[in-house]
Design goal:
alpha/beta; 12 strands; 13 helices; 6-stranded parallel beta sheet; 39% helix; 12% strand; elongated; 389 residues
């Protein structure tokens, strides 16, 4: 018989567990009175425990890779895994998580579509004594988020802006000032991620803080004047929405012969939409032939191939294998009645609590380090990079 690992639940949830255990009717209940109480009893073997994994979508290769990595590493550790993708539909994800709780999973790993839409699900998880790990996207407005695994998202934004500055010749690839930098001014436009994703603000702030000195001294100019997050955000990180906005910007701001030199993009799908719009307007087809510098994020293989071909300038590599590994470590700690290791206990306030977090580092990918970062590490093969799939 399975034995629940309630010792992993935050101390504030101990009473909620006791009520759920006594009543036997709460969401996630289903074990009988022999289940182990918080902090006591015999721990169940991994093979007797099920972990629910909720991922946002299969429309992005990044999230497919995340789901596969988390599932395979958990299964290698001996756990049963219920992996669900919600296709960027909030009601679908809430229903999937509700069902996982009703099926009495021992732990939840959730990459949310909307970080504010899961309060009732997390309340049910907390009442049932199910630890919750937020995966790469912080879940806001709930005390029942036990841990957060992610990358240093502010630094990801710094890296995106740095890569844009490198592409414009203002910085060297190591981030140092280029003594032979052109004077400018350079015209750029700014895109941000989805406003319902907590990470998007961190990316944006890191990038804009990095660009600010160059904007202040006139080296960089945003001719459209669109620099506020709410104006430049891209709902659901949509490639199509990004393409449409870029087309509108080209029509409204650059139809008089003005030249666009670079675009800050926070995600490879958005980058590809931007590039499609630029090429359709006669820029390019490559950087060497006049395509503006476009940044990115997630090292999606389609964009890595474009970087290799001299079309997209850069992306940010966030090794999902490492993110999956930290998620598994945190899950195992909870299920063994322990607290997982956190390396940040100050940054990620979800509006109710500061969530203990483990932050990973990321890398900037340029054409000349694709092999070193992505091929030699086994993330992609050289053939995949060449084919873009």
């Amino acid at each position: 018989m399975r034995t629940r690992k309630f010792a992993a639940v935050a101390a504030g949830l101990t009473m909620a567990f006791a009520l759920a255990a006594c009543g036997g009717e709460g969401a996630g209940s289903g074990n009988d009175s022999t289940d182990a109480p918080a902090g006591g009893g015999e721990t169940a073997a991994a093979g007797d425990q099920t972990i629910g994994v909720a991922m946002p979508t299969q429309t992005s290769e990044r999230w497919i890779a995340d789901g596969d990595a988390v599932k395979s590493q958990l299964e290698e550790a001996g756990y049963t895994v219920d992996l669900q993708f919600a296709n960027d539909d909030i009601p679908t994800q809430t229903q999937q998580i509700d069902q996982m709780i009703l099926q009495d999973v021992d732990l939840l790993i959730i990459a949310s579509i909307d970080g504010t839409a899961l309060t009732s699900q997390l309340d049910a998880a907390g009442a049932a004594g199910i630890p919750v790990i937020a995966y790469d996207r912080l879940i806001n407005g709930s005390e029942n988020v036990d841990f957060y695994v992610t990358f240093d998202n502010y630094n990801v934004g710094v890296q995106q802006a740095t890569s844009l500055l490198v592409g414009l010749g203002l910085l060297n690839e190591d981030g140092s000032e280029n003594p032979d930098a052109p004077a400018g001014p350079f015209n750029i436009e700014v895109f941000a991620g989805s406003p319902d994703d907590n990470n998007a603000g961190f990316f944006f702030n890191g990038a804009m803080d990095t660009l600010k000195p160059y904007l202040d001294d006139g080296t960089l100019v945003v001719p459209s004047g669109q620099t506020e997050f709410d104006t430049v955000a891209t709902l659901r990180w949509s490639q199509e929405a990004a393409q449409k906005r870029m087309e509108d910007l080209l029509t409204s701001t650059y139809s008089g012969g003005e030249e666009l030199h670079g675009v800050l993009s926070p995600f490879d799908g958005i980058s590809r939409g931007i590039i499609t719009a630029l090429q359709g307007a006669g820029y390019g087809p490559t950087l060497e032939e006049g395509l503006p510098v476009v940044s990115g994020q997630d090292a999606e293989i389609a964009s890595v191939a474009l970087i290799d071909q001299g079309v997209q300038f850069s992306t940010i590599f966030k090794d999902t294998r490492k993110l999956a590994t930290e998620s598994v470590r945190a899950a195992e700690a909870f299920l063994q009645g322990e607290e997982p290791e956190a390396n940040d206990t100050e940054t990620y306030d979800n509006g109710v609590k500061v969530v203990p977090s483990y932050l990973l580092e990321s890398d900037i990918v340029y054409a000349d380090n694709i092999t070193e970062l992505l091929v030699d590490s086994g993330y992609y093969t050289a053939e995949q990079v060449e084919q873009g799939s």
